[in-house]
Amino acid sequence: MDAGRLTLRRRPFPQPPTRMPELSHLQRLEAESIDILREAVAEAERPVMLYSIGKDSSVLLHLARKAFFPARPPFPLLHIDTTWKFQAMYAFRARMAAEAGMELLVHINPDAQARGINPFTHGSALHTDLWKTQGLRQALDRHGFDVAFGGARRDEEASRAKERVFSFRSAQHRWDPKNQRPELWRLYNARKQPGESIRVFPLSNWTELDIWQYILREDIPIVPLYLADERPVVERDGQLLMVDDARFPLREGEVPQLRSVRFRTLGCYPLTGAIESNARTLPAVIDEMLRARTSERQGRLIDYDGSASMEKKKIEGYF
Amino acid sequence: MAADTPHTDARLAAGHDKSLLRFITCGSVDDGKSTLIGRLLYETQALYDDQLGALAADSKRYGTQGDEPDFALLVDGLSAEREQGITIDVAYRFFATDRRKFIVADTPGHEQYTRNMVTGASTADLAVILVDARKGVLTQTRRHGILAALLGIRDIVLAVNKLDLAGWSQDTFAAIDRDYRAFAHSLGIERVTSIPLSALRGDNIAAPSTYTPWYEGPSLIEHLERVEAGRADAEATPLRLPVQWVNRPNADFRGFAGRLLGGRVRPGDRVRVLPSGRESSIERIVTFDGDLPEARAGQSVTLTLADEIDVSRGDVICAADDPAGLADQFEATLVWMADAPMLPGRPYLVKMGASTLGASFGHPKYRLDVNSLEHLAAKTLELNEIGVANLTLDRAVAFDPYAVNRDMGSFIVIDRYTNQTVGAGLLHFALRRSQNIHWQAVEVDKAARMRQHGHKPCVLWLTGLSGSGKSTIANIVERQLHARGAHTYLLDGDNVRHGLSRDLGFTDADRVENIRRIGEVARLMVDAGLIVITAFISPFRSERRLARGMVEDGEFIEIFVDTPLAVAEQRDPKGLYRKARRGELANFTGVDSPYEAPEMPELRIDTLADTPEDAATRIVELLVARGVLRSG
């Protein structure tokens, strides 16, 4: 190179002075989540943790136990049930609440139950709206919860990327994406008007990979459906759906086949696609994930209801 | 490139030891910032096939790159933004390499979006500032550097983008690098790394580009993976732990939960708790995973102390030999983030650490021109303006200057009515007087004067539109009280505006200052044992609340003289409405300035139903009912 003109030589990076190793990214994420959980509880009148039985909920519950140790987390768990979860999830739910020693509230929308709402006859949009969106509003109103923890992550979906850690909902449970409070440093403004409630997302800065690595590092229990096993599935509209109980109406010519599958996310079984996999252990799942070329929400049928689908649901009060 | 780099178990295991770097990207509308972030996500395989598929579809619909994927669309999340083609808010993005996890705050570069950049920079260790190689260092490039420096960022990457469109010219790159370095030096930022890029094509993003053989520095990702930014500072400062939550599962355990904002701590360390100043030593560092031998800045822990001393939420546990400062008045830089301007004297809330305090600001000493660092005169701060002003809190708090510890020297400003976050601030230093004010203890006090006067003191605060009848009613009230032997004083617009507030006009800021002065005078007169009657429009709830806060509970009696605007305007005793309607009077309440009716006044008078005499009688009866006056 022409030394007379420019000196943009590669400079060696200076060696840092001897000191304790830097906190790892998982340690920093954990510390931040605990900070958020404590701050929200300190400012809340009636907090609750939304518990969906999935892997993010498992991590959130684990962090809550850490945040308030040696006390128990000072809030109940709330599951908005649709009656359409996998059987394995119901079994896991009972076990986890007992283990954490926390009160578990289960809300089932009576209107949806009376009308027999299900994803097969009513479609995913109506099913999700009545069971989950309306069900959540009913439960929050009934118990008067003012702060609800959720396990949503910003990396899940485009409209989540701009959601705040402390996300406000009007008395009608609506989210106004254009009128969010700026969040600076680690200072969270938790003051609200009467009737308003706050959704708090301690896992905002975690990615799917962080969640799995943390589950592995901390040995956090998860629903076995996340690990591959032989399960009865049918292929429908490009998705592998598990025939989890007798309510699954088989179409003509559909015969459930046993295939080695696992799930990347868990929700209502008729709306949750499986992926073919032989990853029967957690490290194998993570390894597969690192090679994966599709995002976890691809298995979620509700995201495909329209281009700005999730943003619309959130404005209406979906978690 | 993204292709099929095989992942290995080693990479998985490395996940445990990854470090974390938070950075902010700043650029003007056309610098290709969203494209750069999209490219970073792509190169680090943070994108999946279905997302790329959706990107291809979206690119056809909204894209600006023909049939090529428009990476900018990956980052522009909300549908409203897609339609407008601009990013209107801070978005957070995530990607990781084998060495590091990255959290990117993507902030818009528009002039009106200072608030977003300040928000993103507040948690960043480093700033990536984009320039378009064809345009070089522009005003907005300098603005981004100024804001980054203001928020305490000490490491800057200058991403010289679109160099492909400048013929990969080494001279162009070198000139921009030289310009920027000189500018950064003037801001006190020495760690600048300039990298020649094409974000659209991916040159020097993950690997050296063949187009820049003359460049021997790192690629962008390589640099971000290796740079030592931000972290050393917090651990080098003395121990600070604001207590978020007192953990009391049973009578035997009392732990103080919080996140270390500075330094380290070990069992046995001497600590001082502020504001009480009591000292003790650390007994245990309690976590779910067992007690720790040491904790350091960034960790969330629960501490127990060797002695039973009173510690509550908001207190700060400090190193005993190097405690934080303690003060209630500061000089601070203030960034205003709300449509309604900052009004000096208006009561706000301030959240610092785990404390929320009553606060007010003085007149701005100056406003900062974020393009030139010039100091400009200012009476208020508007949305996206940055200025320096004194901050007064309603009690003393532990703090460090922002330059020493970002988390101990920062605060947010909250509006008392909307509860919105309306501003953010950085503490410079405590004002000397805040440590030296001591109230003069006096022997003849309010109680003694009250016994001599035979009644309690109070403020009768009449509020209502111009022409509602405040002064008329106030005069009758004072006459009646005087007749009963009470000691009174009437403060009204004329006797105040001609003297005490002669220097003030009628802007919102001046109105606030006017009410503050009246409130202070009323407070002194109440201390003197008088019944003070005020008759001012006082249109803003927050100013009335300020005045209420100056006297003791129960001493402030708000009386809403309620007359519909149409009626007041029709009466128009001084001809002011007519003038205002003709445009000869600006900021006239009810015409071009709002009147915020009291929500819960102690008394409401309907002037359509009551005569002024009736109204005055009701006020006197209220004073008897409240025990201010004896009956009869």
Can you put this structure into words, describing what you see?
The complex is a heterodimer of chains A (319) and B (632). With 319 residues, chain A is α/β, with parallel strands linked by helices. Chain A has helices at 25-43, 55-68, 87-100, 110-114, 119-143, 208-218, 282-291, 309-315, and strands spanning 47-50, 77-81, 104-108, 147-149, 166-169, 197-200, 229-236, 239-242, 257-262, 273-276. A six-stranded mixed β-sheet of chain A has the order 3-2-1-4-6-5, with helices on both faces. Chain A is globular and about 55 Å long. Mean pLDDT of chain A is 83; it is low at 1-18 and 302-308. Chain B has 632 residues and is of the alpha/beta class. Chain B folds into four domains: 9-228, P-loop containing nucleotide triphosphate hydrolases (Rossmann fold), CATH 3.40.50; 236-319, Translation factors (Elongation Factor Tu (Ef-tu), domain 3, Beta Barrel), CATH 2.40.30.10; 326-436, Beta Barrel (Elongation Factor Tu (Ef-tu), domain 3); 446-625, P-loop containing nucleotide triphosphate hydrolases (Rossmann fold). Helix content of chain B is 29%, strand content 26%. Chain B is globular, with a radius of gyration of 31 Å. The chains are: A alpha/beta (319), B alpha/beta (632).
